[in-house]
Amino acid sequence: MALTPLAAVILGVVLALWLGAAIWALSSGQRRRREGMQAQGKLDRLSALIASAPAAPIVIHSDGRLEAADRLAKWLGKERVPAFVSELTAPDGGLEPDDATALAQEIAAAQRAGRSFALPVRGVDSSRLLLVRGAPAGSVLAESGGVVLWIFDATDSQSEIQTLKGRVEQLREALEALAGLVEAAPFPMWHRTADMRLSLVNTAYVRAVDGENAREVIANGTELVETVGGLTPQAAAAQTLADGTPVERMVPATIDGERRTIRVVDVPLGAAGVAGFALDQNELEQARVEHRRLEAAQRDLLDRLSAGVARFGSDRALRFWNQPFMSLFGLDQERLADNPPFERVLDQMREARRLPENRDFPAWRAERRDWFLSPDPREENWLLADGTHLRVYAQPLPDGGLLLIFEDRTEQVQLSSARDTLLRVRTATFDNLFESIGVFSSDGRLHLWNSRFRTIWDVSEDLLAQHPRIDELMRTVQSRLAKPQQGNLVRELVRAATVERKQRVGHVGFADGRIFEFAAIPLPDGNALFTMLDVTDSRRVEQVLRDRNDALEQADKVKTAFVTNMSYELRTPLTTIAGFAEMMSAGYAGELSASAKEYVDGILQSTNRLSMLIDNVLDLTQGEAGMLPVEKAPVDLAVEARDAVARIKGDATAKGIDLALSLQASLGTIQGDKRRIGQALDHLLENAVRYCSRGGRVLLHGDGTTDNARLVVSDNGPGINAKRQATIFDASSRTEQARNGGKAGIGLPLARQLAQAHGGTLQLVSEPGQGTMVVIELPRG
């Protein structure tokens, strides 16, 4: 069919439009395809980025639907990702119940209020820590009310945080300890910043510069040391920081008002600045001097010791020895001066035969060489060939050296041997003593005993070997005592000796009639010595003597009464005779012839002497009985002495004896019996005149002190031997002498009793051929 031109034109236009549309559609499709491919690539990259992100995203829609990455199931310990948020926050959703509840509340709050939150949660039975960060979702991710969650696995980061916190805490403690150490340092320390300004000083620095406090010192920039040679402390620190190595220098400083030289050390710290400290060299130098002095004193002390001393250095060479070391081992000074090593010194000692004999000397020497390496001191005893005993003490020194001390113990060993022998002898003596001896320790147990102790108490050796206590022992043996309760007395005495350290004595009777005296004596070592002595026989003899003494005392009383009665009985007829004789002498019976007159005078003289003898016997008897009457009145001893000399003057002149009197003003007066004192002087002068040969000399001397008066009667007669002096005042000796026909003089005994009755004393001093001196001392009171 033929087309019209218009139709052909219209068709052409339509075809042209369709072709253009096809071309545009093709071009637009290609462009969109390229854009789609780009978007897909971008989506893939974003998906890969999200997948490799440290957090898993979750999108929660308003209806509770949940979109999440697959790895969330692994973190929650589930096989699949929850489809709804209710499954995630359910009790079995994989989270701890409390954490699930808190997460649900936060999600609900974010949906309502549109706020963000961050919440740490943990999975059930899982060590993972999850950090949930939530925020409202945009319209692109979800419709209104949606929430997007990012869940981070914070396990590793939290562990790292804890580690970092621990390190920070350690660094803080180290810094505080370092600051405390710097502050407590006894020497000045400081720190400078990079611009060389002081930023830190310790208390020692503040004290050294006389500052108030560290803040003031830092603010004022007070320097410790002075500028030396134009170099300031800041310049020196800057040079140290530039060099990068610590620098030491000696500089002057004034500390505590004293000029001192100190050693300053600057330590570069890089960008942190420079640290420094100062040491007082004066104290160090004094310490060095003191050390040298101490070392010299120690060497001098070791050199003065009686023990041999040798010191070896760390190289095992001999560094010091003293004179006893050389003498003890017979070593030569010149050979030791070369500082020989330890082995060579032993060889020299062996050559001098001053080492113990050993079959294998090299091995023995090697063992002694190990002393240098020993951590502890060693001690040995060496017995030399000549019998010398040496105690060897080896002390390793901190510097690797060795100090050897050799002590000669030969004398101690000999003394120990002698002591052991003495102990054996003492033990044998102790066991064979007649006395019963037991030694009780401080706790009251029997420690030692002898055979006599076991025999007296009649106990078995097995019982004593158990070392029983004193109370146990007394309970065992108290049945053997006459009075069993006396066992308590023995126990108490032993306790007093061991605990109270008091010595006690007593006696105890046995049931068989034996009597023992015992004593508990404290010993220096805290023990007590218990001794028992059989005094049965002596007690019997004592009783016999006591009975005899009672009988003698009774007889003496009878004798005293008899003498007293007889004195009075004799005095009556004697007075009558004397009276009649005086009457006859006076002429009452008529005029007497010359011979009768002589007879009457003889009668009067004899009656006077007999009366005096009776009075003396009565006084002596009363004095021996302690009943001699003595008056107390002031007595002028000079007057009594002159009267006594006057009374005896006639007898002395008749015998041609020179009777002298020497009285000093210090003789004075006493409180006493005038008649008794005159009586004592009469007896003494009478004895002196009687026993002194013709032409002799008798002296009565008197003097005194503030407390006592003294009368001395002396003669140059024949004297009295020692045997006679021992018995001259004894009544029984006088009786025996009278029984044998001798003169039983009572003058000296009576004079002593008269002196003692006044509280005084009478002493006799005589030598055969040298005369006799009798001294009476009387108290003033």
CATH class of the largest domain: Alpha Beta
Low-confidence stretches: 738-744
Corresponding CATH superfamily of the largest domain = Histidine kinase-like ATPase, C-terminal domain
Specify the overall morphology: elongated
Number of helical stretches of at least 4 residues: 25
First-last Cα distance:
201 Å
Total strand segments = 27
Structural class: alpha+beta
Question: What does the model show?
Answer:
The protein is of the alpha+beta class and 781 residues long. The chain has five domains: 103 residues, 2-Layer Sandwich (Beta-Lactamase); 102 residues, PAS domain (Beta-Lactamase); 110 residues, Beta-Lactamase (2-Layer Sandwich), CATH 3.30.450; 103 residues, 2-Layer Sandwich (Beta-Lactamase), CATH 3.30.450; 151 residues, Heat Shock Protein 90 (2-Layer Sandwich). Helices cover 49% and strands 22% of the residues. It contains 25 helices and 27 strands. The strands form six sheets. Strands 2-1-5-4-3 form a five-stranded antiparallel β-sheet, with helices on both faces. Strands 7-6-10-9-8 form a five-stranded antiparallel β-sheet. 19% of the residues are buried.
